[in-house]
């Protein structure tokens, strides 16, 4: 078969490489970014994914910024982003644009798989009507539309496109079965055949909503326990030894990435259209969105203890990525932290080894030399060297640990003010 992957980002490129590596299908990729296509053609991985980097060196993957490359495909797989707008409502324009592109080449007997994360109803209410309108073909009769929600965890050394179980549902049972068999050719784990499109769409949304709600719980507990004088991390450690009915989640300076801070809004908005108000989900989002500002408040409080204002005080922001050990800015809390610090006229110094272009210092050492206080926003492995001895030597007076990553006791031994999130 000819398989086309539309969108060669964190989801599409590893997927295209996996299919090309593990099957005999002819795999092609389309992406609007000329620079990304140029890198891929030169076997330079444009995303931070170790497995994909290795695969790209050996696979035969033809790609182009010209959509004609996807013509005459048996399977079209859509892997474009699904962001939210500034008002947190879903932005489905990338999906609509990808569907419109595919419609130009769609013929009878072909299949479309949407891997992008979408709310329940998008395939039935948007994707299929748009395809039928643009092609005069009938879904479930002339072509099949399926949803197989992506499950990618950037920077994870254990779980990747090859071994994460998947769910798939289509417009027909025959389509579901055929496409499930296709995925089984390169995924070495279970492929669960779902009863319909809407149920399949709901799986990814509730996976990430589950995480968002539980993170919101511990973030609110961090605020509460701070007032009560209780170390939340010690509490979580104690609760986690229960062998059933408890799953530890941890507080931090904010929730980032393309899924957790985005996907709940898709469900909130779609349910609202049907007359249901997701109060619980909205509250979780409100709590998690509040954490960057809460972290800045902790910094201000710590600076008050050394009689320094935040204005004009040299402050170091360590980390711009939303996640440790990857270069990924999507929905990163660091962006908000940086904005808050600039609004308050801090003398701001930034260092992230994965984003030298966003850093105004060249090393941790240089940043420490300049700063009275540091705010650790990303738990990169490079930052583990921040011991109490080093911070004391550099005359750092305040440490705000937004990831509870550093050794609190060691730092406080040197009379440095340490404040974690619930710790």
Tell me the layout of helices and strands:
Blueprint: E1 2-6, H1 12-22, E2 26-30, H2 34-41, H3 50-56, E3 62-64, E4 75-78, H4 93-103, E5 111-114, H5 122-135, E6 144-147, E7 166-170, H6 173-184, E8 191-193, H7 197-228, H8 232-239, H9 263-273, H10 279-289, H11 291-305, E9 314-318, H12 333-343, E10 347-351, H13 364-370, E11 373-376, H14 388-393, E12 398-401, H15 408-412, E13 417-420
Parallel strand pairs: 1-2, 1-4, 2-3, 4-5, 5-6, 7-8, 9-10, 9-11, 11-12, 12-13
Antiparallel strand pairs: 6-7
Helix pairs in contact: 1-3, 4-5, 7-9, 7-10, 11-12
How would you describe this structure to a colleague?
With 423 residues, this protein is of the alpha/beta class. Helices cover 40% and strands 13% of the residues. The chain has 15 helices and 13 strands. It has helices at residues 12-22, 34-41, 50-56, 93-103, 122-135, 173-184, 197-228, 232-239, 263-273, 279-289, 291-305, 333-343, 364-370, 388-393, 408-412; strands at residues 2-6, 26-30, 62-64, 75-78, 111-114, 144-147, 166-170, 191-193, 314-318, 347-351, 373-376, 398-401, 417-420. The strands form two sheets. An eight-stranded mixed β-sheet has the order 3-2-1-4-5-6-7-8, sandwiched between helices. The chain is elongated, with a radius of gyration of 24 Å. The chain starts with a strand and ends with a strand.
């Amino acid at each position: 078969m000819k398989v086309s992957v539309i969108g060669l980002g964190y989801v599409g490129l590893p997927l295209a490489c996996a299919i090309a590596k593990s099957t005999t299908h002819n795999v092609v990729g389309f992406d609007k970014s000329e620079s990304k296509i140029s890198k891929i053609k030169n076997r330079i991985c444009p995303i931070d994914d170790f497995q994909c980097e290795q695969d790209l060196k050996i696979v035969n993957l033809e790609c182009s910024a010209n959509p004609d490359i996807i013509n005459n495909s048996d399977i079209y797989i859509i892997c474009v982003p699904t962001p939210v707008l500034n008002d947190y409502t879903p932005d489905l324009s990338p999906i609509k644009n990808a569907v419109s592109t595919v419609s130009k080449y769609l013929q009878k007997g072909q299949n479309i798989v949407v891997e992008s994360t979408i709310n329940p109803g998008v395939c039935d209410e948007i994707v299929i009507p748009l395809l039928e309108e643009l092609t005069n073909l009938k879904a479930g009769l002339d072509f099949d539309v399926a949803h197989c929600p992506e499950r990618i965890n950037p920077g994870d050394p254990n779980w990747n496109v090859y071994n994460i179980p998947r769910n798939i549902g289509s417009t027909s049972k025959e389509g579901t079965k055929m496409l499930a068999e296709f995925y089984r050719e390169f995924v070495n784990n279970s492929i669960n055949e779902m009863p319909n499109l809407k149920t399949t769409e709901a799986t990814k949304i509730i996976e990430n909503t589950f995480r968002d709600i539980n993170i919101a719980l511990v973030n609110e507990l961090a605020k509460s326990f701070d007032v009560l004088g209780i170390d939340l991390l010690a509490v979580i450690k104690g609760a986690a030894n229960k062998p059933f009915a408890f799953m530890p989640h941890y507080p931090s300076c904010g929730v980032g990435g393309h899924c957790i801070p985005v996907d709940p809004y898709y469900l909130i908005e779609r349910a609202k259209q049907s007359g249901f108000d997701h109060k619980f989900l909205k509250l979780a989002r409100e709590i998690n969105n509040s954490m960057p500002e809460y972290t800045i408040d902790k910094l201000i409080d710590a600076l008050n203890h050394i009689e320094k204002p935040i204005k004009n005080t040299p402050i170091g922001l360590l980390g711009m990525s939303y996640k440790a050990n990857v270069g990924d800015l999507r929905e990163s809390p660091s962006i908000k932290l940086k904005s808050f610090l600039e609004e308050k006229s801090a003398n701001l110094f930034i260092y992230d080894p994965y984003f030298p272009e966003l850093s105004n210092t060249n090393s941790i050492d240089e940043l420490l030399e300049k700063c009275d206080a540091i705010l650790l926003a990303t738990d990169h492995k490079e930052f583990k060297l921040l011991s109490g001895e080093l911070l004391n030597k550099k005359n750092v007076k305040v440490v705000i640990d937004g990831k509870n990553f550093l050794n609190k006791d060691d730092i406080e031994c040197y009379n440095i003010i340490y404040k974690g999130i619930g710790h």
